[in-house]
Write a structure and sequence with these properties.
Structural class: alpha/beta
Helix content: 25-40%
Mean pLDDT: 95
Radius of gyration: 24 Å
Largest sheet: 8 strands, parallel
Number of helices: 12
Strand content: 15-25%
Bound molecules: pyridoxal-5'-phosphate
């Protein structure tokens, strides 16, 4: 049943498909894969992956084996890479054809044990650390590899990850690229992948054969400091629950941080930090009602926040009037800036209490099933 007291999160699948095409145009010599870990950055991996598959995406990355198994149930023929390897889930994952990203010699050995038990080579990607010191084989580990171990692998991809891709002038980008070149030369020839969303915009030398795009597909700006080249995907609207015509001097909300005078008008909406709206945005972010900016008044509560709607005519805001909390000129990146964080964090915290509304694209006819 529709609940008129709930906020509505609209996710534009058409915009996600359009962003996939834009990234593919930016890296024309490479293939763009979609990173759909963490439930497609909280937007719903099933809906998002189906839309991307219809847009022509063939390869997907998740973080965990169970995320990969859930995706396999939807997309029988897509290539699904598991970034954190398959520890503990090898059986089902290997039968489902998931491709583990092997990050260290222990993972490689386990995967080869699985292959030996099955009497066949198993597909895998190999992650090479190129200077981020987070995941991946280091140089000494690569040099120590027995070539017979690598021969026993169906090596689909050699990949690495950049630490500072969103800063085009950062010297680590080129350092990491050079180190990736040196280190992948220690391995048998295989398709290579270095770029996340931001690195797609660093130019062709970062593209290699496969780019791994996440946040840009979902509308977050991969080029901070420059105009966002991506189509907006997410909007969050909430109905006004209560309106106050202030008739005495006072303050709004917890901590009494926002003073108000008689004549001010306030509107409270049912979104708070328990829904992923950042508490740190209190007193800093703006929402919009009928296009007019309305500042947040005071602190964000767990389930509520209050807007100062004094700039709007008295009868323009009533219970049920919708306020736009994320969207238009006040998107994920702007809210993140107001809260002192990044668009990734705002996006991946969007909660489960909203009514979720998916719009576009028209259902495609590309089959996701394995042909007989
Ligand atoms: C290894 C790896 N590749 C690609 C991505 C996608 O990054 P982005 O969302 O910046 O495109 C991530 C995300 O964290 C990642 O960890």
């Amino acid at each position: 049943m529709a609940d008129g007291s709930k906020a509505v999160l609209t996710i534009d699948l058409g915009a996600i498909a359009e962003n996939f095409r834009r990234l593919q145009r930016t890296a024309p010599g490479s293939e763009v894969a979609a990173v759909v870990k963490a439930d497609a950055y909280c937007l719903g991996a099933a809906e998002v992956a189906r839309a991307l598959w219809q847009a022509g995406c063939e390869k997907f990355f998740v973080a965990h084996g169970d995320e990969g198994l859930a995706l396999r149930a939807l997309l029988a023929v897509a290539e699904i890479y598991v970034l954190h390897g398959l520890a503990g889930e090898e059986g089902a994952a290997i039968e489902a054809g998931l491709v583990p990203v092997l990050n260290h010699p222990g993972e490689l050995q386990r995967h080869l044990d699985q292959a030996r038990r099955r009497g066949r080579r198993l597909p895998a990607a190999l992650h090479v650390d190129s200077g981020m010191w987070r995941l991946g084989f280091g140089e000494a580990e690569l040099r120590a590899l027995d070539p017979a171990m690598l021969d026993a692998l169906d090596l689909r991809l050699v990949m690495s990850h950049l630490a500072c891709a969103e800063e085009p002038g950062h010297p680590l980008n080129e350092d990491q690229r050079a180190r990736f070149e040196q280190r992948r030369a220690l391995l048998p020839p295989a398709p290579a992948s270095l770029a996340n969303s931001s690195a797609i915009f660093l130019g062709e030398t970062f593209h290699y054969q496969l780019c791994r795009a996440g946040v840009a597909l979902y509308g977050v700006n991969p080029t901070p400091g420059f105009a966002n080249p991506m189509a907006p995907v997410v909007s969050l609207e909430a109905p006004v629950l209560q309106v106050f015509e202030v008739d005495a001097h006072g303050t709004v909300g917890y901590g009494a941080t926002y003073p108000v005078q008689p004549g001010a008008r306030l509107a409270t909406v049912p979104v708070g930090y328990a829904d992923g709206y950042p508490r740190a945005a209190g007193g800093r972010a703006v929402a919009r009602i009928a296009g007019t900016p309305v500042p947040l008044a005071g602190r964000v509560s767990m389930d509520l926040l209050t807007l100062d709607v004094s700039a709007l005519p008295p009868d323009a805001v009533r219970p049920g009037t919708m306020a736009l909390l994320i969207g238009g000129p006040d998107g994920l990146d702007e809210l993140a800036a107001a809260a002192g964080t990044i668009g990734y964090e705002v996006l991946t915290r969007l909660g489960t209490r909203f009514v979720r509304r998916y719009i576009g694209p028209a259902p495609g006819n590309r089959t996701a099933a394995r042909s007989a």
